[in-house]
Amino acid sequence: MNDHAQFLATYGEVPVQRREVGQVSAARDRVAEEVPLALIYNGMPHVVMMASPADIEDFALGFSLSEAVIATPSELRAVETDRVGDGIAVYMDIDEKRALALESQRRNLTGRTGCGLCGAETIEQAVRHPARVGSGVRIAQRALESALAHLAERQELNAKTGAVHAAAWAMPDGELVAVREDIGRHNALDKMIGALAREGRSFEQGFALITSRASFEMAQKAATVGITLLAAISAPTGLAIRLAEETGLTLIGFARGRQCNVYTNPQRLIST
Question: Could you give phi then psi for residue 214, rounded to 5 degrees?
Answer without folding.
Answer: -95, 80
